[in-house]
Design a protein that fits this description.
The complex is a heterodimer of chains A (379) and B (301). Chain A has 379 residues and is an alpha/beta fold. Chain A contains 13 helices and 16 strands. Chain B is globular. Chain B has a domain of 210 residues: 3-Layer(aba) Sandwich (Glycerol-3-phosphate (1)-acyltransferase), CATH 3.40.1130. A 7-stranded mixed sheet of chain B has the order 1-9-6-2-5-3-4, sandwiched between helices. In chain B, strands 7-8 form a two-stranded antiparallel sheet. Classes of the chains: A alpha/beta (379), B alpha/beta (301). The interface between A and B is large, with 48 and 53 residues.
Chain lengths: 379, 301
């Protein structure tokens, strides 16, 4: 199938822009059209490389004309269920997510050229309650369907995609359910949450299991699903798990347990003063913890993520400046042991620098050469 | 007072084999190393949240004291527990607070030749409770549901289940050692589907640690608990009521009941499941009576 013409949504974001660039360089692909409602920043534009950009709001019927005019055969909806880069108003995000998807699907349904559809979904569709099994397969029925927030949007979007599948059974549909995406470049509420320094608020008495997927794996996986044959829903996550508290420690930060009500107030406060701003919803979604079964991804879709959850997190953390570095803790251990006159069982700093201490200056796909530093307020 | 040992120039690995200290110095060095691992997040948890470092360094040591010095637990039939393959341990449940599950975990970890980890199945109430929920996950407990049980069993873990659930732990003292209803047999179908043996486990001694004389229903309802116990010491003595009575314990691991020959379809045959459930229940009940006779005095043994 030489000469695919691919439409990628959400190219102002990392995932969409990287995917558009990678697809454009692929020999099977003739043309890539990246669309978004806003103009991509220089970084995103650089990642898009050979892909074309069309400024179009997917909530506008104009999108149908682009698909028609260019003869698009593959649509990758990478902005669906995307976590907002900024703490924009909730209604705005919902509109982009749900109504945008509806318009896009309507456009695809009318088009005779569209043969492949990849819609990004999120592991949030599983919700998460104490009555759910510890590990979700694609067939696990969620006990507590999310009733609001971005998780609800993801559920709705998947519903519309299923409806589209019924009306257009000839189109191959792949729906990857991504665990939280982290990495040196992506900006999500989760990465902002871990960028809070020196303390990161957590809900007292709770400690969720986290599962993550590295940004490169996320792009590779979308590539694989776009160009491959796989059809259906699939979980995408790095193997293994971390607990929230463990992750905060690995990031060189101090967990600050707060009652869940205080957490909401604090999140709002931080957003108001624009320090970091995480949504309390995000933290609450983390409460039950979720781990995905990725057997289908490996066996049926034929994709094996390169980064485990821990490796993905460590790669993300390397761009942060730790508030408490592992060296600090080691030297403290030595000092305490010295006071007690004991030879500590502390490892050397040399061979095994812990997370967050090694220099990491690798750009993604030749894009911005330096990793993003956590944004600081200009004085 | 320092006995500094010369540090070798080339350390073999990132973690020296063992701190070259003995006695309390070794414990302090170990505790410091543990604290460092916690503070740097340098440990691993599995997909279920089981934290081996936490379990062996923090949870087990105090429980071990309780196990050997306080309850003087005697173990029978440990050789019935497989060395390195999956098995479902089905045990009776009693004692107002699930101390029996903890003692069973100590028995399996300390007294099994391969020092295996016991993975228990717990009610969702456990995971709803703040503090307790995360602790339970760290200690290897996961939700009592077939997907989790089957996943653990097929990866070769020892899974413990207490099919009586709250009906067992929260039963009045007058009903001690009378097994309650064994649920819907979900645990049996999990074992049959994964083809692992069922090992009936009978625990004597847990019934007497907090003899439950009454159940304060309104308080239980108000707190959202399955029962609110009234024991000879609780709530009268306040926190002192949390001290268990020093009963003498016996834990017997029975003959394994093989399920491999029943095949996958056996798991969906209600007759097979009910019969096997009854057989396991009957075995545990008979063993309990036998162990009670063998124990003699409740506290002196």
């Amino acid at each position: 199938m030489a000469g695919m013409i691919v439409l990628v949504t959400g190219v102002t974001r990392y995932l969409g822009s990287s995917l558009a660039g990678r697809l454009a360089a692929h020999p099977q692909v003739e043309r890539v059209i990246g669309v978004d409602a806003a103009l991509p920043e220089p970084g995103a534009r650089a990642r898009m490389a050979g892909a074309d950009f069309a400024r179009a709001d997917i909530r506008n019927p104009l999108i149908a004309r682009i698909i028609e005019a260019a003869g698009v055969d593959t649509v990758v909806h990478a902005s669906a269920s995307a976590t907002p880069a900024s703490s924009a108003a909730r209604t705005m995000i919902k509109e982009m997510n749900v109504l945008g998807t509806m318009q896009l699907l309507a456009a695809c349904q009318r088009s005779s050229s569209v043969q492949h559809l990849v819609v990004r979904s999120s592991a949030a569709v599983y919700g998460g309650s104490s009555r759910d099994p510890a590990i979700f397969t694609e067939n696990t029925p969620p006990r507590a369907v999310p009733s609001r927030g971005p998780a609800r949007d993801a559920v709705d979007i998947e519903g519309y995609v299923r409806g589209f599948g019924r009306r257009r059974p000839d189109v191959r549909i792949a729906v990857p359910r991504f665990a939280e995406i982290v990495g040196p470049t992506v900006q999500t509420p989760l990465t902002r949450y871990f960028s809070l320094s020196p303390t990161v608020p957590v809900i007292a008495g709770r400690n969720a299991r986290l599962q993550l997927v590295h940004e490169r794996d996320a792009v590779d996986c979308l590539m694989h699903l776009t160009l491959g044959e796989f059809e259906g829903v699939v979980n995408v996550a790095g193997s293994g798990a971390l607990t929230l508290i463990q992750a905060i420690h690995r990031a060189g930060r101090i967990p600050l347990p707060l009652p869940s009500m205080a957490l909401g107030t604090m999140g709002r406060l931080l957003r108001t003063v624009r320090v970091g701003g995480f949504s309390p919803e995000q933290v609450h979604l983390l409460t039950p913890g979720r781990v995905l079964d990725t057997t289908r991804l490996r066996k049926q879709a034929g994709f094996d993520p390169a980064y485990s959850t821990v490796a993905a997190f460590d790669d993300f953390v390397a761009r942060l400046r730790p508030a408490v570095s592992p060296q600090n803790i080691r030297s403290l251990e030595r000092r305490v042991a010295g006071l007690a006159g004991i030879r500590p069982a502390v490892p050397d700093d040399g061979p095994n620098p812990g997370p967050g201490s090694r220099p990491h200056l690798v750009g993604i796909d030749g894009a911005a050469g330096t990793p993003n530093r956590p944004r600081r307020r200009p004085r | 007072m320092t006995t500094r040992l010369p540090t070798s120039a080339s350390e073999p690995g990132p973690e020296p084999a063992a701190p070259a200290e003995t006695g309390w110095r070794r414990s302090v060095a170990g505790a410091l190393a543990f604290a460092r691992r916690r503070l740097t997040g340098d440990y691993s948890v599995d997909d279920f949240g089981y934290d081996e470092d936490m379990t062996t360094s923090v949870f087990l040591p105090p429980l071990r004291l309780l196990f050997s010095k306080y309850f003087r637990v005697e173990i029978v039939g440990m050789d019935n527990v497989p060395v390195d393959t999956g098995a479902l341990l089905v045990a009776n449940h009693s004692g107002t607070i699930a101390v029996d599950a903890l003692m069973m975990a100590v028995a399996i970890h300390d007294h099994h030749p391969s020092h295996r980890a016991m993975r228990s199945l717990g009610a969702n109430l456990v995971f709803d409770t703040p503090v307790l929920g995360p602790l339970a996950r760290q200690g290897g407990v996961t939700l009592a549901c077939n997907p989790d049980a089957e996943r653990l069993l097929s990866s070769g873990e020892l899974v413990a289940v207490f099919p009586e659930g709250f009906k067992g732990v929260g039963k009045p003292y007058s009903q001690r050692y009378k097994l309650q209803r064994f649920g819907r047999g979900g645990f049996v179908s999990a074992a049959v589907r994964t083809g692992v043996p069922i090992i009936p486990v009978s625990i004597v001694g847990a019934e007497e640690i907090y003899p439950m004389l009454g159940d304060l229903r309104p308080a239980a309802r108000a707190l959202g608990l399955p029962y609110f116990p009234i024991t000879p010491t609780f709530p009268w003595l306040g926190p002192l009521g949390a001290i268990p009575l020093p009963s003498k314990w016996l834990i017997e691991f029975g003959e394994p009941i093989t399920t491999a020959e029943l095949g996958e379809q056996g798991a969906d045959d209600p007759m097979v499941v009910f019969n096997l459930t009854d057989r396991v229940r009957e075995t545990i009940q008979q063993t309990l009576y036998r162990l009670l006779l063998r124990r003699g005095h409740t506290f002196l043994g």
